[in-house]
Structures are given as structure tokens and as C-alpha cells.
Amino acid sequence: MNANVSFFGDLLGTISERGRALLDLGRDRKPAGAARAAGLVELCERLLSGRGEASGVALAQEILTRYRALKTGERIAFFEALAATFGPDRARLERALAEYARHPGEASIAALHAASEPRRQELVRRLNLAPGATAALVGMRSALLDVLPRRADLSVVDRDFVHLFASWFNRGFLVLRRIDWSTPANVLEKIIRYEAVHAIRDWDDLRARVDSPDRRCYAFFHPALVDEPLIFVEVALTREVPEAIAPILAVKRAHTVDPARASVAVFYSISNCQPGLGGVSFGNFLIKQVVEEISRELPDLKTFVTLSPVPGFRAWLERERRAESPAALTPADRVALEALDGDGLEGDTARQAALRPVLAALAAHYFLVARSPKGRPLDPVARFHLGNGARLERINPFGDLSAKGIEQAAGLMVNYRYLLDDIEANHEAFFDKGQIVASPPVRKLLRADSAPKALVPG
Questions:
Q1: Which of 244, 286, 336, 349 has the fewest CB atoms lying closer than 10 Å?
Q2: What are the structural domains, with CATH classification, of the chain?
Q3: pLDDT band, very low/low/confident/very high, at 34 (cuts 50, 70, 90)
Q4: Which region holds residue 404: left if phi is over 0, alpha if psi is between -120 and 50, else beta?
């Protein structure tokens, strides 16, 4: 695959250089300041109005090259121009609306659909003609995401990126590859850099995760992003469903599990590698694809679970503690939760024992009752796994006693379970009805006075 990508990249590069000669796109003109953003907008207009293939490739490459030279403020000015001047062609849209009113039918509907599309989408498609453009456009959206929290008016540009990326990064285009010690070093280095859940300390730590007999790592790649993982999954083969992460992450373990005797596959880390693809679904059932891959190698494995962080739990808990009328806390809870304050929780078994039942009950409320203003579960990891068809299997107070685990989740971790026969039904229940599938032990943790919404028995 890499050889084919390299060949077509070289071919596009040749076309681009010939187009550059035709267009006189030399590198000697380097406008300064805000003029760079304005000049970029002019080139974008030329790209949209042109028809030649060679000139289009050259223009696209020139635009992306000049974009990379922009400073932060200039990039924001460029995004502002995309939002303000590259929306739908108003005159064309009005003509299409009038034609549809006069002659409603398939032809006028198609014309109306084409006229309503923002010009930004066609611009991004044409920019993608340049060699290496897909990676550059993913980087462009990453920069856009950085400014969106304070520039909501640019969300129209982001919607167009998401619309196009959803097609370009459809699951049908993704390739699943196993990562092991024979994987090229440049990819292994990216696994270390992109690990977002449990940091990889050094090469010995990486080797323990990808080269031990009872460990596996799988990554999804896209043909347009050579040797750039999009998402990767780390797996531990065990005899029991784990409730704590420390034994899994230990570099020097006293015993390893013979894969032939393992009964559980544990997905303990799932990392998205490309910030510019944040919020872009690669398609659901990615975990199912990994399950199927492991099952081909080890057909006797029957239990597939995660050991997942709960990154928003501590923040929710602290909001509850500060609230005058909390939704979940009782007066007794407030007293018990004082044991969270101060250092040394990781080594204080007495404090942990006092907190354990309180945290378990509150976690059940957090997952099964608490909702965002849009009616979705609060926890992003829960949304990912429930959306992929898992069920909430078990709540593990103090599953992660690292500083990060205590800061983000008061030490809490959970297991989600993937039952192959139920994945599609669970997925549909979650997305169509907002239902959460939970095991009986998790449901029993919920206090009688709580009122879960759309809870489905496991």
C-alpha cells in the first residue's frame, strides 16, 4: 500500500510543478501580515473558478503551503473569510428555489441540493487534490478546533470539515494492523507519543505492552495518512476480569498468561491520535472489529471487556459537593466524601474502605441517571463504548490510584463488556432511544430514590 501511495504522491507532485509553471506561482512573493490571509483567500477563489487539473493541483498545493506559514491571528482571519464568503452562492440558491417552486421534481430538487451546498465544501475537496493534502487538512481543522471555544461563529466552517471527513474516514476505508515489536520504529514512536490514557514511560514500557505474549496492540490506519495511526487499542489477555489498572501496566510482571489459556481480553487503553479528527466518527463497531481479529487468533476467548477511565467523574462529584441542593448526594455522603480531601489516599486502606460504597452508589447515579443538557450520558468514555454496543458491566472504586486517576475520577474505573450477539441491539437502543444497557450488579448499586431514565437491564 505504501508503495502505491508514494507513486501517486510523486505523480501529483509532478502535475503540481507543471501547473505551477503554467500559473507562475513562484515562491519569491511573500506578502507580510494580514495580507497573507487576504492573498490566500484570492487563491481559493481562483481554485474554485478554475477547471484545469494541473493548475488545480498546483493552486491547492500553493494554498496549503501558504497556509502553513500563517501565524495564529492570520489563520483566524482566514477562517473568518471561509465563514463569511465561502457559504452557499446566494444568487444561485434563490434561482434554484424559484425553479423548484415552478417545477417541483427530481431535477429541480437535485439543483436545489447542489445550490445549497456551501462553497467551502468544494474548496476543501479541491484542496485535497494536492500531495499530502489530507494530512494538511486534518491539521487545519485541528487549528480551527483550538479557536472554536471562543469563536462560535466559525462553527459553520467546522461543520463542513466534519461533513467531508465523515465520508473520507468512513470505516470502510480504515485498515486494521497489529502493532508489535517488528512494527517500523517511526510508528512505534507515534504510539508512545499518542498514548492518551496511560502514558508510556519509555521503550521498555512500550515493549511490555506490544511484545509480551499476553499483550496485543491494534491500530487503524487510513490510506491517505501513511504510517499515521488514527486510533489504537491496547489489549491484555487475562484469566479474570480485572478491577485495577496497576497490575496490567506493570512492566515487570511475575507471571505472564499463556494466550492459549486466557479467558478474557481486556481493552485497557484506546487512544485517538489525530486532534483534527476529534468528533468525527470512524463508524461504530470499531471495537467489534478488534474483537473479531483477536477471536480469529484465539477462538477460545469468550469474554471481552474494557478497563476504562471515568475522566469526568471527579468534576461532577465536586459540583455535587458544592451544590446547595445536590441531585445525588445525601448529608451522610457529604461527610464520607471528606475522606477524598488531602493526600495519601492511594496508601490509606481505611479511607478507601469508608469511601468504597459511597463512590459505587454515586457512580451508578452518574452513569445511569445524570445527563447533559442534551440528554446524553455525562461521561465521554461511556458515550464511546455504549455507542459501540457495549454494556456497563462493573464499577470499580479505586481501580486507578495514580495521581491522574484520583484527580480525574477519585480513583474510579469501570468495565464495559462487549457481548458479540448483543452489540448491534445495544448500539441501536443507545442511539435511537437513549437507553443504557447495564448489568444487574450495576443496577443494584443505584439507590432506591434515584430515577434512571431509559435504563435497559443487562
A1: 349
A2: 2-168 (1.20.140.90), 171-306 (3.40.630.180), 309-457 (3.40.630.150)
A3: low
A4: alpha
